[in-house]
Write a structure and sequence with these properties.
alpha/beta, seven-stranded mixed sheet
Amino acid sequence: MKLNTNFNNIKESYLFAEVGNRASAYSKSNPDKNVLKLGIGDVTLPLAPAVVEALHSAVDDMAKQETFKGYGPYEGYDFLRESIRGYYKSFGVNLSLKEIFVSDGAKSDLGNILDIFSKDNAVLVPDPVYPVYVDTNLMAGRNVIYACANEGNGFLPMPEKGVKADVIYICSPNNPTGAAYTKAQLKEWVDYANSNGAVILYDAAYECFITEEGLARSIFQIDGAKTCAIEFCSFSKTAGFTGTRCGYTVVPEELKADGLNANKMWLRRQATKFNGVPYIVQKGAAAVFTERGQREIQQNLAYYRQNAKLIADCMQRLGIWYTGGKNSPYIWLKCPDGLGSWQFFDLLLNGAQVVGTPGAGFGVNGEGFFRLTAFGSREVTQQAVERIENLLRK
């Protein structure tokens, strides 16, 4: 037996596990302290009533012979895929049903999609970056190249002529930085990918937070994207499905290379390794796109947007540089007084009992920066902002 030695190339501890361990150790040593967590991007509001009713109805379906469901289609039930197609059409993107694949979340698909690509592909990811992009490729032994995202370019790196990559990861609005590409900027990436025969793996998990004109809800709003991009999205942040698990991936029929069709390859991969998302969950997800569901979902999103504004306004009052907070549930701030990311983590934890995420955990360029999330409750967010401001104004 030989184990995959490429696992030696990744960090032994996953970033968010380390954050959780340190916060737990502090709480154990300081049981009288109330620790407020604005670290991991997990939602706190319950599922929308329309979704819950659909879930209950689907459970009832499973209790009756005439409506019982066993194995479902590998690519998802048509009723959900049709709803997703209608959602894309609402912002000008036309998809065929064959291009939409339902999954148990964007995180899974972002790693699993690598099955259809050669291990010889060079992979370009921004730094700082969501760890899954890097770790899944290092596990497979691929060469990872980094695009420099920094304060100077607003953490939105653009294509460089001297850099050749085969697989390109883009997340917009970005996790962890909250920065979002304009349509014009994404057009440059699409042109770069098409001219280099590359593919863009586009993580659109936070598209629902976009409110400003000129920003893309989907990479497929950009001309030429269907020949060079695959898009991943999730109900986790859109509708609070972090514990329910459902997402979807769009693989255009036009995406081809070496005489092979990526759409057909992904269907074959899913049919081999995946048995689909439960019928009950898919019924709940479909309710998200109903008129009532959208109304209730938007209320939840507005709640998180207000949390983000509270944190962003605090940074402005303190004179701290940041990105995000608008079009994104994340605030990516520059650690004050030249502190390192983990130093600032310790300062907030010990001085204000607030937990965030050190930027260094997202890459070399994340050192000296810090991520706060707007997914906490309103009460926790307000208390955390007050504590941070009191601490840093001293």
